[in-house]
TrEMBL record:
Binds 1 FMN per subunit. Pathway: Cofactor biosynthesis; coenzyme A biosynthesis; CoA from (R)-pantothenate: step 3/5; Cofactor biosynthesis; coenzyme A biosynthesis; CoA from (R)-pantothenate: step 2/5. CTP binds at D103, K113, P131, D132, I133, L134, F150, K164, K168. Catalyzes two sequential steps in the biosynthesis of coenzyme A. In the first step cysteine is conjugated to 4'-phosphopantothenate to form 4-phosphopantothenoylcysteine. In the second step the latter compound is decarboxylated to form 4'-phosphopantotheine. Catalyzes two steps in the biosynthesis of coenzyme A. In the first step cysteine is conjugated to 4'-phosphopantothenate to form 4-phosphopantothenoylcysteine, in the latter compound is decarboxylated to form 4'-phosphopantotheine. This is Coenzyme A biosynthesis bifunctional protein CoaBC. One of its GO terms (cellular component) is phosphopantothenoylcysteine decarboxylase complex. Its cofactor is Mg(2+); FMN. Its EC number is 4.1.1.36, 6.3.2.5. It comes from Levilactobacillus brevis (strain ATCC 367 / BCRC 12310 / CIP 105137 / JCM 1170 / LMG 11437 / NCIMB 947 / NCTC 947) (Lactobacillus brevis). The chain holds residues 177 to 403 of 403 of the full protein.
């Protein structure tokens, strides 16, 4: 564990963490999702709990076991995630959006299983943008509240990350290069670049998601203390 990481680091703070890949349903037996394993978000929830926070983990289906001492809220779609976050955010000190949120959802959800027929050799799905949860949160964020995002990038990690930090009015962004196979989505390891609003960046070594989560929580504690 990282030094100086104690149950007092976030004592009494209310922390919301989101995790996993949201699912956008097409019909009763099919959905669109992404490669997120949920491991990074679960590690952040565990680290915040160990740092003394009261933690709510809002999670898409992952198959991971809940970290002990953490309240779990299960969601599937981006719309459900948005409602769960926006309901709780006014009473939270910190929000960490580690969920891999679907950017598009089907315009219509079929109530019955979609059938293939003799005349549909091709099928076109019409999707619409999902709500940007962190942008909605930015609109109601109070000065004492800390918001943290994750950015999955396959190119121009720093430039894209800096733009996301500004657009979503974040206090901290953890950017990672998901084009690398050795880290990120399904791996137990990760490497992120922390980006701060003042433009300072700090790349972690490649290490376990547990240690990266602890580094993130330590930074959150420092940001909270300075507010
Ligand atoms: N996020 C969100 N609501 C969405 C999409 C993303 O709150 N509808 C959050 C994610 O949880 C993450 C951050 O925004 O913390 C950045 O997500 P990312 O997918 O990297 O960025 P997008 O803004 O969706 O942009 P793009 O996927 O086009 O790079
Ligand atoms: Ca996205």
């Amino acid at each position: 564990d990282l030094p100086l990481f104690t149950p007092q680091t976030l004592a009494g703070k209310r922390v919301i963490v989101t995790a996993g890949g949201t699912r956008e349903r097409l019909d009763p037996v099919r959905f669109l999702t992404n490669d997120s394993s949920g491991k990074m978000g679960y590690a952040v929830a565990a680290a915040a709990q160990q740092a003394g926070a009261k933690v709510t983990l809002i999670t898409a289906p992952t198959g991971l076991s809940a970290p002990s001492g953490v309240d779990i809220v299960n969601i599937q779609s981006t719309t459900e995630l948005a409602t769960a976050v926006l309901d709780r955010f006014p009473n939270a000190d910190v929000l960490v959006m580690a969920a891999a949120v679907a950017d598009f959802q089907p315009v219509t959800v079929a109530d019955q299983k979609i059938k293939k027929t003799a005349d549909n050799d091709e099928m076109v799905l019409t999707l619409k943008k999902t709500p940007d949860i962190l942008k909605q949160v930015a609109a109601i964020k109070q000065p004492h509240q800390v918001t943290v995002g994750f950015a999955a990038e396959t190119q121009a990690v720093l430039a894209n990350g800096q733009k996301k930090l500004a657009d979503k009015q974040l206090d901290l962004l953890a950017a990672n290069d998901v084009s690398r196979q050795d880290i990120g989505f399904n791996s137990d390891d990760n490497q992120v670049t922390f980006i701060m609003p003042d433009g300072v960046t700090d790349q972690t070594p490649k290490t376990s998601k547990r240690v990266i989560a602890q580094a993130l929580v330590s930074r959150v504690a420092t940001i909270l203390a300075a507010k």
